Amino acid sequence: SLFSELQGASGPRLCGNDWVFQQDNAAVHNARLTKEFFQENNITLLDHPACSPDLNPVENIWGWMARDVYKNGHQFQTADALREAIFYTWSNVPTSLLETLASCKPKRLFEVINKNGGATHY
């Protein structure tokens, strides 16, 4: 699958064999098949409390990517075509988006602290 291609190539290559995978508590992440995949592949997950605020800016990147991949209502005829579009989009994430997300991190943290860990507008 696309996920296993990304995970398999990136985790150990970037962080060695002692890395931890982070995800939020979305229903799809807690599905039985997802949990089995992580167990079968000996992937350590970061313990994430329920209803915790999502401070991971990659969520914003995923949103940008989804909008870009499917812009103008584009549909894909094959999984390979979709995979190609995703990899192309990933390699063309604007530096300005990354800089904006990095620069707003202190504001995100400040808002979480002010809301005692509650929901933020991010």
TrEMBL record:
Residues 19-83 form the Tc1-like transposase DDE domain. Pfam families: DDE_3 (PF13358). GO terms for molecular function: nucleic acid binding. Transmembrane segments: none annotated. This is Tc1-like transposase DDE domain-containing protein. It comes from Poecilia reticulata. The lineage of its organism: Eukaryota, Metazoa, Chordata, Craniata, Vertebrata.
